[in-house]
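Open question from group meeting: does this chain pack into something compact, or does most of it stay loose? Before anyone orders reagents, we agreed to write out a predicted structure and look at it together. Recording both the input and the output here so the notebook holds the full record.
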Amino acid sequence: MAEDVFLALANPIRRRLLRLLADGPRTAGDLAAQFELSRPAIAEHLQVLRRVALVRDVPQGRQRHYHLNPEPLAQVGDWLHPFERFWRERLRSFADVAEEET
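Structure tokens returned:
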């Protein structure tokens, strides 16, 4: 399942959809209006995100409202956590070099 989440997150359109949904639920039409893609193309991206449980849709009348489901993202964060030390050390080294140059 985690591999599927990483594959879904690999696409920049899907990452942008998740950022938009982080602000709150939105309809498919509202999401599609934020892109220069067709509504069917956005619907396909939303389907991928639904399949890996990153979003859920709630029917309200004739519309579907999409909601972010942060739980799979927490799993990704847990997986990435051990690598934070590596990047923190690299950034600290970079900052040291930058300070020596000034």
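Observations to bring back to the group:
The mean pLDDT is 88.
Residues 71-101 form the longest helix (31 residues).
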